[in-house]
Amino acid sequence: MLSILLPVYNCHCEALVTELQRQCVECGTEFEILVADDGSSVTSYTEHNLRIERLDGVRYITRKQNVGRSAIRNFLISQAQGEWLLFIDGDLTLDNSHFIRRYLQAKSNVVVGGIRIGGDPNGWKDNLRYRYEKAYEQKNTLQDRQCHATKHFRTTNFLAHKDIMMEHSFDENFVQYGYEDVLFGKSLAMDHIAITHIDNPITLDFFESNSEFLDKTEQSLRTLYTFRNQLKGYSQLLETAEKIKKLHLQKLVNAAYFLVGQRIKKHLQGNNPSIFLFNVYKLMYYIHHEKNTL
Fold first, then answer.
1. Average pLDDT for the chain
2. Cα gap 210→130, rounded to integer Å
3. 130 three-class SS
């Protein structure tokens, strides 16, 4: 039995769930689709998503309190009846007609399908998240993912045997945004559990505003600092920050943050954000946060 698990928060998921359910029926597999709303703050989303309950095999669970990305996934695991668990973020689009079939044909205990960046390039050309994801997509080919299987693990779209997920739950100390998937991938590697990457993407085609994305990025950098010891070896930014520390350049970078950090941030919130400056800003923000937290 296949359990498809979707955590959702302030998003519509009716189209995604409808297509997942259609493909499962078409394949003739025994299935359930569990959708858990993690305390959405906008009631119109939950009211709209209630429509999925009319679909056979679909269960929609609303949670009053937001518990975070790790805890909501662990909750879904606890509710699942299937032997195989397919995790999909609820704000994505499924335009891959062979999606379920390819996962059913997979021969590994942990399988990552990947993500495709969609959306109208002209409509999103000034969006920082879109530009960042497109740049990341070019460095995240199937061959690259297979060569660095653990470091390319993302919870966006993956299949795993329930026994593995029961033994390797998501760390619920990760309450704020970011990096819970990186640590999960590392925990699999430490237990010598292979991660197989296949070409079975789901589509990201809606992107938050530049200001919202920057807020989430800053939150993720604070998370990275909090769990820096656990994430060591799994973050290029951490490695760069460590080199700067060894060269005794922290004060210089921190001073640069005070001098130009807000100007760079304002640029990134504008209509022509630079990915290079985005990466510079992330490094400066992390070092500034580290220096002011110690």
1. 93
2. 9
3. helix
